[in-house]
From TrEMBL:
SUPFAM superfamilies: UDP-Glycosyltransferase/glycogen phosphorylase. PANTHER family: GLYCOSYLTRANSFERASE WBBK-RELATED. Residues 196-349 form the Glycosyl transferase family domain. Residues 13-170 form the Glycosyltransferase subfamily 4-like N-terminal domain. This is Glycosyl transferase family 1.
Length: 374
């Protein structure tokens, strides 16, 4: 069979990691079928095929562009594939051939992700209108759908009334080997800090980071040495979060280093006491698994897919209650044996996930679609 994979987001943070890891896994599990990977010129050096049955084809069509809906379907048709895998639901909704579509989450349907100036925010909000139509069209015409958790599968079934038999939940995996290979890089501002709470990610409202800052205010009353590290580019959200910390008297306890390298992230995971994932909407919650792979205990919001992915290897709090979160943090800090227990559970939990398993399950799906099985 000839299988075309849309790799136009190779350099993006989340989807890029998914694409690269999936391609690596597929090259190890399938040496028989022919794979063609669409790559933008700017990403050409990001990935090079290692297996003979994998090739790159230049495709200079930007994600989320008009050409993605008009020109990309024609590109796919010219390639005459037996199966197309669109790794996000926004691509080539008008393509009518056999296709597998990955839906990572439905956050854009429920939460505002606009930021910046009033004009930029308005532009982002307006883009949500065609996205809703594109998503509905893509789901309606997909031969098979991949979701990264069963939670997202159930959301699709409930909202779009589609046959659950065509949806296959396929878990992702933490990139623990990549982190293990990275050399530790310390952050100078944290050299003297003994107890850190850690958050890694972006700062849209649905990420619920303000709740963590509020919780720190309660924790700090009895544990003045506790600091909160918010890692990742905060951009337009940074000033607001620092202002919140200032109002709570936490200006010297909330540290925002911005973008961190893999080496710095590894150092943070290993140096922190607790990783907090407060998000209200996730498709998978990969950072929590990464933290577990480094032995870091996890506290997470009891929301969306997080309980499915983390299982009994995390402590959960009511998503909008900073008081509940603070109490969970304090309980762990006061009982080091519970931290050790969570760390052990996390290391065992991480064994359930691997990119090899992700690739094998995805490969089976390609074979089903190629053989005409729906």
């Amino acid at each position: 069979m000839k299988i075309v994979i849309d790799g136009r987001m190779l350099s993006w943070t989340g989807i890029g990691r998914y694409t690269l890891s999936l391609l690596e896994g597929l090259q190890s599990v399938d040496q028989h079928n022919d794979y063609v990977v669409l790559v933008r010129p700017s990403d050409w050096s990001t990935w090079k095929p290692e297996a003979r049955n994998f090739t790159r084809v230049e495709c200079d069509i930007d994600p989320y562009s008009v050409a993605e809906q008009t020109a990309l379907p024609r590109v796919l048709k010219r390639l005459s594939p037996d199966v197309v895998h669109l790794l996000t639901p926004n691509a080539a909704a008008l393509y009518r051939g056999p296709k597998v579509v990955t839906v990572h989450d439905l956050t854009l349907l429920d939460y505002d992700t606009s930021r910046g100036s009033r004009v930029k925010r308005l532009s982002t909000k307006l883009k949500r209108i065609p996205f809703r139509w594109i998503l509905a069209r893509q789901i309606a015409t997909a031969t098979r759908i991949v979701t990264v958790t069963d939670y997202i599968k159930q959301q699709l079934v409930q909202r779009f009334k589609i046959d659950p038999a065509i949806i296959s939940p396929i878990w992702l995996a933490a990139d623990s080997e990549h982190l293990a290979a990275a050399a530790d890089e310390s952050l100078p501002d944290l050299g003297a800090v003994e107890t850190c709470l850690l958050y890694v990610g972006n700062y849209y409202a649905y990420k619920n980071v303000r709740t963590v800052v509020d919780a720190l205010g309660v924790v700090a009353q009895s544990h003045p040495g506790v600091h909160l590290v918010l890692a990742g580019n905060a951009n337009e959200f940074k000033a607001d979060l620092l202002s919140q910390a200032q109002e709570l008297g936490l200006a010297d306890r909330v540290i925002m280093p911005g973008f961190v390298t893999d080496g710095q992230l590894k150092w943070l995971y290993r140096r922190s006491k607790i990783f907090v994932n407060p998000s209200l909407s996730e498709g998978f919650g990969l950072q929590g698994l990464e933290a577990m792979s480094q032995g870091l205990p996890v506290i997470a919001a009891r929301a969306s897919c997080l309980p499915e992915v983390y299982g009994d290897a995390a402590v959960y709090f009511e998503p909008l209650s900073s008081t509940d979160l603070a109490h969970r943090i304090l309980a762990l800090l006061r009982q080091p044996e519970l931290l050790d227990e969570l760390s052990d559970k996390g290391r065992k939990r991480i064994e359930m996930f691997s990119w090899r398993k992700t690739a094998e399950a995805t490969h089976r799906l390609y074979m089903d679609v190629g053989q005409g099985q729906r």
